[in-house]
Amino acid sequence: MSNLFSIGTSALLANQRALSVTSNNIANVNTDGYSRQGVDFEPRHVPGQIMEQGVSVGEITRFADPFANTRLVQSSAEHAALETGATLTRRLDAVLSEEQTGLAGPLRQFLDSIDGLAADPSSVEARVEVLGDAEALAQRFTQIQGQFDNLNSELNARVSGSVSQINDLSAAIARLNDEIARSNSVSPPNALLDERDRLVSQLAEQIDVNTAVQNDGSVNVFVGSGQALVVGNTVSQLSVAPGATPADPARVLLGGGDISGQVAGGELGGIFGFREDVMQPAQLEIRALAQAVSSTVNDAQAAGTDFNGNPGQPLFQIGSSGAGLSVLITDPQALAAAGPQAPAGSGDNSNALALSEALRAPVLGQNNLQEANLSLVGRVGTQARSLEAAERAQAAVVSQQQFLRDQVSGVNLDEEAANLLRYQQSYQAAAQIIATANAMFESLLAAAR
């Protein structure tokens, strides 16, 4: 009789545990990173007894595919880098290509005003127009350089913010490693494992990582070309090395070594990729354009005579940082439209014609000024479209990897509802076993009276 009570009680407890696990799955159906759990039933054996003595819960199984999780983490890191790069490149493309912010309009107007001066070198209005358009062009170069400086300062702030998040996440992963290693000796710490996987996924959104699970259940995390970020419960902190000025690019250090060039994934990788592949080349081309405008015009000024009969003076000056322009001449009569040694008040336009030709001649490789600007705008626009297409494709890869992960680890409400009904019926049946045993026991007592 006691065996019957024992069997019924074990069945009640086992199915109660199964109902709890199933209910927990249902409750966490929308919890990010949750891996569904299942109950392993085992026949209960009492030493010295030939027959089994009911049922027991062996282990709460966590359904997780480490390879699927790794692929999801890696694809998420790549997507974060592409998304960051695409967003930043679109912003730069807008600065360079739009009429209100780009060089095309002011450059075209300046060239047209030089043509107007060549057509009527004695016209005060034509000379004033040249100075006005020169000032507008110089301001636009300076504004664009300011946009580059502001963008680079923003990138430096984002690098610092990302490094701070990486250090916080790494410390949290190390703490979980310690808890998991201590808990593994008692029972699998499923909730802790889910939490650690979630933190690793968040870390991959900041920087590309590789992981290696150790025998005690802890996970080592590596970044860059294999530098250890987390080993067991030990963390190596990242640090930021600022540039000489706020506009200079910041670098990321690990253990005193610069790993900026080794980071390819996550938001940090997207920032470094944009900075190296898009922003810095574009900034160099803008500086080359500014210097080409300045040198071409100033050389022409030096070769000619102004309206007062004096040798021409420089019109433009390059900023101290090698970018940005300023206009040095305020007197319209100081524009050297005439050829060398022309008398004061001369209607000679030979130098203005030469300047017009020089401004439309190849000055940067095979391109003139307008062609060089169009080439820059086209290249950045192409990079923006390419990154957007790659980001969309990688988003589809992430969705596919998430689907594959969820096939193993995701909670299916229909399946859990069926399990809930099944375990409930088993629980009721176990209760019936105890009720039957109790009725039999009462019958025996009644017969003994």
Task: Characterize the structure shown.
It is a single chain. The protein is α+β, with helices and mostly antiparallel strands and 449 residues long. It has nine helices and eleven strands. Strand 3 and strand 4 (219-223) form a beta hairpin.
Our measurement of the CA-to-CA distance between the termini, rounded to an integer number of angstroms, reads 18 Å
- Class by helix and strand content? alpha+beta
Rg, alpha carbons: 37 Å
Mean pLDDT: 92
Helix proportion range: 55-70%
| Physical arrangement of strands within the biggest beta sheet | 3-4-5-6
Keyword list:
449 residues, alpha+beta, 3-stranded antiparallel sheet, 9 helices, 11 strands
Briefly characterize the structure.
The protein has 449 residues and is α+β, with helices and mostly antiparallel strands. Helices cover 61% and strands 11% of the residues.
List the helices and strands and how they pair.
Blueprint: H1 2-27, E1 37-43, E2 55-62, H2 66-97, H3 104-119, H4 124-183, H5 190-204, E3 209-213, E4 219-223, E5 227-231, E6 234-235, E7 238-241, E8 251-254, E9 257-258, H6 266-303, E10 316-318, E11 325-327, H7 350-359, H8 369-409, H9 413-448
Antiparallel strand pairs: 1-2, 3-4, 4-5, 5-6, 7-8, 8-9, 10-11
Helix pairs in contact: 1-9, 2-5, 2-6, 2-8, 3-4, 3-7, 4-5, 4-6, 6-7, 6-8
